[in-house]
Amino acid sequence: MSQSKLSTEAVLLQGDFLRNCMSFYSSVAVYLNSVIVPGLVEGYPPELPLPPQVPALFANLPEWYVEDMTEFLLFCLQ
After folding, report:
1. Which of 17, 32, 49, 52 is buried most, with the most CB atoms less than 10 Å from its CB?
2. CA 24 to CA 18: how far, in whole Å?
3. What confidence score (pLDDT) does residue 10 get?
4. If you compute the radius of gyration of the chain from its CA atoms, what whole number of angstroms results?
5. Using 50, 70 and 90 to split pLDDT, how confident is the model at 68?
6. Which helix (H) or strand (E) covers residue 72, if one does?
7. Closest CA to 32 of 2, 54, 11, 17
8. Which domain, by its residues, includes 23?
């Protein structure tokens, strides 16, 4: 069991793998921003407060999109 845990950690903590994951989740964040605020120019943050009307596409997205991104960032911080 300990060998399995160590080999898994060795793969997950590899620099290239973490960079690729961070790039993927950055793309997901850009996509989510574009869904929340249509017409948002990439590289610019959305203006706050966000529109009170939630876009239907965003309301229909599974919440695990954001949960997964959060868990990855928390993993990286630990």
Report:
1. 32
2. 10
3. 66
4. 16
5. very high
6. helix 64-77
7. 54
8. 2-77
Phi then psi for residue 66, to 5 deg, are -75, -40
Please state, in angstroms and rounded to a whole number, the distance separating the CA atoms of residues 64 and 22: 17
> Quick one: tokens of 62?
């599974």
**Dihedral of CA 51/56/57/60: which sign?**
positive
Total domain count, the chain: 1
Token pair, residue 15, equals 């620099």
- Of 41 and 67, the structure prediction assigns the larger pLDDT to 67
What pLDDT was estimated at residue 11?
66
pTM for the full predicted model: 0.73
DSSP labels, 39-51:
TPPTTSPPPSSPP
Q: Which helix (H) or strand (E) holds 10?
A: helix 2-12
If you average pLDDT over residues 8-26, what whole number do you get?
Answer: 81
* Token pair recorded at residue 18: 């973490």
Predicted confidence (pLDDT) at residue 50 exceeds the cutoff of 80: yes
